[in-house]
Amino acid sequence: MSRFVMTSSSLALAAFLTAAPAFSQNATSTAPAAPELRVFDPSLIDKSVNPCENFYRYSCNGWLKRNPLPPDQTHYGRYTELSELNRLHLRQILEDASKPDPNRTPNEQKIGDEYASCMDTAAINKLGLTPIKPELDRIAALQSTAELPTLLAHLHTIGVNAFFEMGSTQDFADASQVISSYDAGGLGLPERDYYFRTDAKSVEQREQYVNHVRRIFRLAGEPETQAAKDADTVMAVETRLAKASLTITETRDPQNLNHPTDVARFSKELTHFSLADYVESAHAPASGKANNTEPRFFAEFNTLVADTPIDRIRTYLRWHLLHAYAGTSMPEAFETESWNFYAHILNGAEKQQERWKRCTTRVDREMGEALGQVYVARYFPPAEKQQALEMTLAIEQAMAKDIDSLDWMSPATKQQAKEKLKTVMNKIGYPDKWRDYSKLVIVRGDPLGNQQRVRQFNFNRDLAKIGKPVDKDEWYMSPPTVNAYYDPQQNNVNFPAGYFQPPFFSDKEDDAVNYGDMGSTIGHELTHGFDDEGRQYDKDGNLKDWWTKDDESKFKEKAQCMVDQYNAIEAVPGVHLNGKLTLGENLADLGGLWLAWLAWEEKVQAAHLEMTAKTDGYTPDQRFWIAYAQQWCTQTRPEQLRSQAQTNAHAPDEYRTNSILQDLPEFAKSFNCKLPDKMVSAKACRVW
Ligand SMILES: [Zn+2]
Fold first, then answer.
1. Distance CA 67, CA 82 (A)
2. Which of 101, 251, 447, 611 could form a disulfide with 329 if both were Cys (CB 3.0 to 4.6 A apart)?
3. What does residue 183 show for φ and ψ, rounded to 5 degrees?
4. Distance 7 CA to ligand 1 centre (A)
5. What is the Å distance from ligand 1's center to 484 Cα?
6. Taking all residues of the chain, what is their mean pLDDT, rounded to a whole number?
């Protein structure tokens, strides 16, 4: 369970849109022609808007007019545009691989047969509950809490996140080692505050959630009154777990999650739950170092096991089993019901995505490196990898200079910061060594069994890391993904192949726009190593303070400027952004764009570029800022905006544009903006 921070919010949202992946577009069953995507597109600019009043609208209005929100989308932006293009490519790969050709490679057999099984809805509907029946029977056979550890271990191995999550993690104190990790879990709503907010909308959402749980129980064959009673039970159990859990803002501070123990000691604390039985059944280590990320949660779990009647525990487990599988493996009514709550009610989607999209995304998530290996061979030329690496190195150099120039940081801390920067590992495109899927069995015609085996495979793979040295070459995003991340515990930046294309990067465009767009993302990921969370780790990824007290308090004071700036933004009526939750991303946005600017300025000077020469009517610096803004053009439903503001560490895209640019005097200079123009902040923030 690596803790990493990424660029786009899409993936974070996809994590709880279980039945409805966050990406989609208007596509029919035949592949539509790909739209022409450009890094800098003058035709998207709306000249009727004053760039000093609203730069996002100025840069994006043309795109927004051209791209109405498709009914199957909760949001639709440039990241979605490219993700959709990549998904069409993946679909082609999967359709090719699904032809039962005896010459298929073992990986092609797996991805092809998994895709074909997922697409066969007639067979899935016909099988009904039969494939999940053995698991329902196991839960029904639970007679006492003494038997719970063994059953729960089994459920965890097949991806049912009831009560808590167990896996591997890097040791906070020694980043070279992998230890056992026990994390809070077991909720059906997106995060703990959903159980406690008192505004009318939140109360309504809880009622809708209970109704959703009831309808899932009904689909599983329960009579109406029983289903209603059971849904209330689920809500009561989850509310207790939620109450003992940290808020998402609290989980952003690694100090709150750092509670080293060992399995034996942890076992003694769980007086009503035999950890020995659990680890034996899960094939997890029975001894050695562990991290209990949330002690308060596990204390409550222990009490809950002791005082909850066994039939209520069975009910809770039954819900989480059905919830974990209510996707493309189950009869369509389950998936539709799940989509209705998570995508429609919570995030505003109007229509379910087409089957091929859901199945393509499923294979990408399950066997991303098997699919990604083919993708990279077809769509990622080696020259692009080289260009991306050169840009990354240029921006790292800019950061070193930037650190030197800071007026608030002492030479001692600067020295440490530069050491850390020098140690950052740049991972570009895809893994050097592909994941080995040879032990995974995929059977054509058995989608639910396949899903269970995939989850078991991933669980076992994760556990096998415990006690071994950290493998920094591992990737946590698949190669076709349109996103990027920084891993603070490994001090590396990761840019999947899927991202290096228009509208973010093009070898046909000049540096001004490539640096404004992709350069800002590279800078963003780098800055994560020095944001409020990342700065707490040293160059090797250990959670270890390398700051002088004075520098730390200056950093906090400067960061507070951004907390206040974002707290003041009302995303939807009554819901403000959470300045603390989004702080790391906002620092990375501002720092990242600034570093891209510095790196680009170096390029300009080296090439003696004429800054007054116009292309498409804009000077190079203006094109730099417009390219930055145009990566964020996005349509978002109000429901999604609300859940994003409440749960996502990324601010909505409009603010990722305007709020950041308001803080940069260099931007104001390019467009001649002056106070009191809206795009100029009277109290500009600046940290890095
Ligand atoms: Zn980020």
1. 13
2. 447
3. -120, 150
4. 4
5. 8
6. 94
